[in-house]
Amino acid sequence: MLEHGGRLLAAAQRYGIAPEDWLDLSTGIAPHAYPVPPIPPAVWQRLPEDEDGLAAIACRYYGARQVLALSGSQAAIQLLPRLRPPGVVVVLEPSYEEYAATWHAARQDVRRCAADELPRAAVEADAVVIGNPNNPTGQRFSRRTLLDLARQLDARGGWLIVDEAFADADENSESLADVAGSAAAGNVVVLRSLGKFFGLAGARVGFAIAGDAILASLAEATGPWAVAHPSRHAARAALADRDWQAAQRVRLQRDGARLHGLLAAAGLGESSGTALFRYLARDDARELHEFFARRGILLRYFARPAAVRCGLPANETEWQRLAATLDQWSSR
């Protein structure tokens, strides 16, 4: 099992600090979650049904032709490798480690490459898996670049899988959700999630956007009732609430800029990332992670390349605590 952010209870045990005394900045999940409306008792008592309107609401939100609701985009990340015959799969390095792990487990030939090596590496690929924005670096790829890559892959029957888990916070996103599965991009699979922007990671709701054949195979692999009825209830409300979404984007852009400035002012150098997190590649990343952890602030540590990722505090008290610890690091 790979390491992920948000393992607060494990950190509490390791460092001897009670869970309620931690400031968890390790996940990149929005600290202000969508306020889910009350769940009617019948939602708990009945099995979920596909005809509840969730797919239509999701299509409107994403601008998609069709979607498949899943128990988080992680479900698609795990299942898609099993839907293809063995071949060459290209993933970025660094990127979300589950991409390489799941394709390797499906006996695919996984090849890692840097972003500037992607066009050359994709020449021999049967599939390319990419995050846009990339996790953990925040690097973005233009719509034109991705569609060119999709056409290159399509000539060999290959797939382009684009994980857009962090795309919602950007008003001018380079999303491919509107063309995935169309005649022009039938080999494109887009993954979306309610975990990050909506702050509903615990609901485990995600969507695959693709053509008929791919979604049919994915639906068969997931089986019935992939998303719990209460989670579908929460997702319908969140995806339909345009006013909340607009306010959330303004808040995240403001807080993301504040975090960027705070890290730079502390002498940590230029960071990359999204409105939800900042990424710092540093030789002393492990030392930085330990320094903060021993003071009850959990960052996400990456070993290859050495780096840390820092998410957003939820309130002014947490912002001040982060700033004070940054001052301690700078003057240590």
Provide an overview of this structure.
The radius of gyration is 20 Å and the shape is globular. The strands form three sheets. It has a seven-stranded mixed beta sheet with strand order 2-8-7-6-5-3-4, with helices on both faces. Strands 9-10-13-12 form a four-stranded antiparallel beta sheet, with helices on one face. A two-stranded parallel ribbon has the order 1-11. It contains twelve helices and 13 strands. It folds into two domains: 8-33 and 243-330, Aspartate Aminotransferase, domain 1; 41-240, Aspartate Aminotransferase, domain 2 (3-Layer(aba) Sandwich). It is an alpha/beta fold. The model has no long low-confidence stretch (mean pLDDT 96). The protein has helices spanning 8-15, 41-45, 54-62, 73-79, 97-105, 118-121, 143-154, 212-222, 229-240, 242-265, 285-293, 316-330, and strands spanning 23-24, 68-70, 88-92, 109-113, 127-131, 159-163, 188-193, 206-209, 272-274, 277-281, 297-298, 300-302, 307-311.
Number of helices: 12
Low-confidence stretches: none
CATH H level of the largest domain: which superfamily?
Type I PLP-dependent aspartate aminotransferase-like (Major domain)
Mean pLDDT: 96
CATH architecture classification name of the largest domain: 3-Layer(aba) Sandwich
Distance between the termini: 35 Å
Cα-atom radius of gyration: 20 Å
What is the H/E string? Answer: HEHHEHEHEHEHEEEHHHEEHEEEH
Oligomer: single chain
What number of structural domains do the residues give? 2
Described by strand count, sense and barrel closure, the largest sheet is: 7 strands, mixed
Helix content: 25-40%
CATH class membership of the largest domain = Alpha Beta
Shape: globular
Spatial sequence of strands, sheet with the most strands? 2-8-7-6-5-3-4
Could you tell me the strand content as a percent range?
A: 15-25%
- Alpha-beta content class: alpha/beta
